[in-house]
# Entry
Amino acid sequence: MKIIEANGARIPAIGLGTYRLEGETCVEMVGKAIGAGYRHLDTARMYGNEAEVGQGIRASGIDRDELFVTTKVWTDDLAPSDFRRSAEAAVRALDVGAVDLLLIHWPNASIPLEGTIDALNRAREDGLTRHIGVANFDSALLERAAKLSRHPLVCNQVEYHPRLSQEKVHEACQRLGMAMIAYSPIGQGKDLLADPAVTEMAKRYGKTPAQVVLRWEIEQPMVGAIPRTSKPERLAENLDVFDFELQDEDRRRLHEMSRSRQRLVNPSFAPRWDDR
# Structure
């Protein structure tokens, strides 16, 4: 497993995304992921499954210190008092002790960033989380958040795949010593994975299209990925990306594909993206 060293945090480069995993399915998938070798688990208040993620962790019997657990505070709860309440509820629901990483899930233009960043720092200082960061911040907002923070931000979690370039965000993350963690790293549905360029590469490497895409991401400096799956058989596949390397020409082709900037996640409250 590649480990990303980011401002004092050690983040496993491949993690399990748990968006839309619910109930017993979520509990079972978390347990099976840990059994398959995953050590990075990602959830959020908005997902409504923190209790199930925690249950899966506890049932696995793994030593808590072997895991890197991330959760996120939703955009409606970024006022300082709301943020504190939400962060405490997240830790309570997970019931595995302090989380390893607490993120602002999305920025909120109607709530002053200064107060939210202060609340995020207080959560760290009060022992709710070991590290802090953000998600879905454009490069300018990321620079501003880093300047406001008393403690280093270790991560910006953003949509990233070979149909969406994140060059400016990635450059900002590297400047600030932060990881860029990709959600929807293999896109959504079969469109990206059926692309002839990707399938041709997969055949050549003896890998699946998903493995080629994940490998492209984790080969980049300070980049990790949290693919989500509800299929147990895909867990090992998504983790089996550390025994091959892409050729330079294939890296270039995938990079050029990303310039098409086909964003999948773009809610009305999103920031002003760098690719506009």
About this structure: The radius of gyration is 18 Å.
